[in-house]
């Protein structure tokens, strides 16, 4: 019996060695013919260092190819053409696999022209705008941001014109300040594609910390309950329905007169009940000073999608500004708008109060972008 196992293991090892030898000899390898190249292009065969590509060289399965500044290479297999753009790297498998940079492909000798940029620099608690431009219209675009620790966030591009598309992405205040990758893959109607993988680092922000003292009256609001779970689920479902039209115009405005921030976005807050520490949370909104009855205004155009009382946030109004951007207002004394109402920038929507879990009258303004709470003040300073 033991000898049979030995023979079986030896047979498997022989088979694996044969497969590896066959690939190295090109029996199962896919070879790509180099059509042309320009500038600095390097090729690395399996187990060998990078070397500059030479005239009449071809590339095959297992090779890595990278380009330098103002460089490119065009190559093909039996059916498809590929173009590796400047500052890019691929790994050759059955098809080229992009490691970073920009790769285009087509069944004809014609490539999709695609350019992108994002602004501002990514940071914890902040928003970025990703813009894609192309000479062609009607692109099908898929995109995401991910890191090597398992994080992934899908991006959705909306057409601003026939040749310009925009996606918005937010980073949570507790997002890891590590290396991330932005991926964009676009197809036109003829099946031509361009893929982009752009690595970047997320900036760590130094947010403040503070304490919140709650009274006995608010203590019971902290307890878990079925109703709180239902309220959380209901609002979450509403915030997941992104409108296909951008309703906001230019920069946002503060939703109160004479704005005075009493608790900044991102603040690490330690909650005390009867002077006894209860829990810690990061502030995912901006608290504005006010007294009960002070008016609250819409910071930009939108549609009211929620106007109800909740246990934790009190009287709450949510406004959909379009393209996955929502404003949320907590702790209101009164709500002057109903669900479905269209509101304009500066229109009164309610009054400041102290309903829900709060230590006093103020307005909590949260900005929800593509599934993540971000700093609202950025939207006052710049146009997204």
Summarize this entry quickly.
With 384 residues, the chain is mostly beta strands. It is 12% helix and 45% strand.
Describe what this molecule looks like in 3D.
This protein is mainly beta and 384 residues long. It folds into three domains: 23-106, no CATH class; 114-201, Immunoglobulin-like (Sandwich); 209-381, Glucose Permease (Domain IIA) (Distorted Sandwich). It is built from four helices and 30 strands. It has helices spanning 2-24, 216-219, 226-239, 377-381, and strands at residues 31-38, 41-44, 51-52, 58-60, 64-67, 72-76, 81-84, 89-92, 96-106, 114-119, 127-134, 140-147, 152-155, 158-159, 164-170, 179-187, 193-201, 209-214, 261-263, 268-273, 276-282, 286-289, 295-297, 302-310, 314-322, 325-335, 342-343, 348-352, 362-369, 372-374. The strands form four sheets. Strands 1, 2, 3, 4, 5, 6, 7, 8, 9, 12, 13, 16 and 17 form a 13-stranded antiparallel beta sheet that branches. Strands 19, 22, 23, 24, 25, 26, 27, 28, 29 and 30 form a ten-stranded antiparallel beta sheet that branches. The protein has a four-stranded antiparallel beta sheet with strand order 10-11-15-14, with no helix packed on it. The longest helix has 23 residues, at 2-24.
């Amino acid at each position: 019996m033991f000898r049979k196992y030995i023979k079986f293991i030896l047979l498997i090892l022989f088979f694996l060695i044969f497969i590896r030898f066959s690939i190295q000899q090109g029996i199962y390898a896919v070879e790509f013919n180099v059509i042309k190249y320009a500038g600095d292009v390097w090729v690395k065969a399996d187990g060998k260092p990078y070397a500059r590509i030479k005239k009449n060289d071809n590339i095959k399965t297992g090779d890595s190819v990278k380009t330098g500044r103002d460089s490119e290479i065009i190559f093909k297999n039996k059916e498809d053409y590929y173009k590796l753009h400047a500052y890019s790297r691929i790994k050759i498998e059955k098809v080229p696999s992009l490691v970073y940079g920009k790769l285009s492909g087509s069944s004809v000798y014609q490539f999709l022209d695609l350019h992108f940029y994002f602004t501002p620099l990514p940071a914890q608690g902040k928003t970025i705008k990703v813009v894609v431009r192309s000479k062609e219209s009607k692109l099908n675009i898929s995109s995401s941001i991910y890191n090597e620790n398992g994080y992934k966030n899908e991006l959705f591009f909306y057409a601003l014109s026939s040749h310009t598309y925009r996606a918005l992405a937010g980073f949570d205040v507790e997002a890891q300040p590590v290396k991330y990758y932005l991926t964009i893959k676009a197809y036109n109607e003829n099946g031509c594609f361009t893929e982009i993988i752009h690595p970047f680092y997320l900036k760590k922000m130094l947010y403040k910390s503070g304490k919140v003292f709650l009274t006995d009256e608010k203590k019971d609001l902290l307890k878990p309950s079925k109703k709180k779970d239902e309220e959380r689920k209901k609002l979450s479902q509403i915030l997941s329905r992104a409108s296909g039209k951008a309703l906001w115009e230019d920069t946002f405005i503060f939703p109160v007169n004479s704005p005075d921030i009493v608790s900044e976005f991102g603040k690490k807050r330690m909650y005390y009940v009867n002077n006894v520490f209860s829990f810690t949370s990061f502030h995912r909104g901006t608290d504005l000073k006010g007294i009960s009855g002070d008016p609250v205004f819409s910071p930009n155009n939108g549609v009211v999608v929620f106007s109800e009382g909740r246990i934790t946030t009190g009287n709450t109004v949510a406004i959909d500004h379009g393209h996955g951007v929502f404003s949320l207002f907590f702790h209101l004394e009164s709500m002057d708008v109903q669900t479905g109402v269209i509101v304009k920038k500066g229109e009164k929507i309610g009054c400041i109060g102290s309903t829900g879990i709060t230590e006093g009258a103020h307005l909590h303004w949260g900005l929800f972008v593509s599934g993540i709470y971000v700093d609202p003040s950025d939207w006052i300073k710049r146009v997204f």
